[in-house]
Design a protein that fits this description.
Layout lengths: L4 H18 L8 H11 L3 H22 L11 H35 L12 H31 L7 H43 L7
Length: 212
């Protein structure tokens, strides 16, 4: 049984937003993984981009309400942060196209391969699923780290506007990256993509008449 799409979309928007509001200081919320997942699994491109960005907007509003100042979380780097998550959606779309091509190739091979060669060999999930998702997750997290911290260095006066000041900014951000952004995105990728893969396997094992 599959949940209605509007219900799923609502959950993907509301739950991360509430998590961001409750755990704002730790930043342990998998927004990058959510954006990656939406790009990989939503065929509608506007929906894929809208879900993580809508969750970000809702989360920022909730953070502002908790601090009794709606403008609290709306800052100069906000468009850059949102842009990084939009790039994650594009990375997810690349994953989706890769899996579509792989599926089409397997279907074509199953029809054209001579019978005496036996059935088409199933590709390794590690090579086709785990490694691509891991690479996209790490890539998205690194883009977020370098772009947003460069923006912090450039737009604010916390560090000197020198190469050393830029290095100091990045070094100071490493703990927040490893224990926040990267850890959250890795856990989120395991949850979103791993859970989706397991559900696909369960659906595939069901008789056709039982599939919703």
């Amino acid at each position: 049984m599959r949940l209605p799409r509007p219900f799923v979309v609502g959950l993907l928007i509301v739950i991360p937003a509430v998590m961001r509001a409750l755990h704002f200081e730790r930043s342990l919320v998998p927004m990058g993984a959510l954006a990656l997942y939406c790009g990989a699994h939503f065929r509608n491109r506007w929906l894929a981009i809208s879900v993580p960005l809508a969750s970000m907007v809702l989360g920022d509003v909730l953070i502002g309400l908790l601090h009794h100042d709606v403008s609290y979380s709306f800052h100069a780097t906000l468009p850059i942060v949102y842009g990084c998550y939009a790039l994650n959606v594009l990375l997810g779309m690349g994953l989706g196209r890769y899996w579509d091509r792989l599926k089409a190739y397997r279907q074509h091979a199953a029809k054209t391969q001579p019978f005496e060669n036996g059935p088409v060999r199933e590709p390794s999930p590690i090579a086709t699923r785990v490694l691509p998702v891991a690479g996209a997750t790490l890539g998205g997290a690194l883009i977020f780290f370098f772009v947003t911290n460069f923006a912090d260095w450039y737009l604010f006066n916390m560090y000197a506007k020198t190469w050393q000041g830029l290095v100091d900014c990045y070094v100071a951000a490493i703990p927040f990256f490893t224990r926040g952004t990267l850890l959250a995105d890795v856990l989120g990728a395991v949850f979103f993509f791993g859970g989706d893969y397991l559900l696909e396997g369960q659906v595939a094992e069901q008789p056709e008449a039982e599939r919703a």
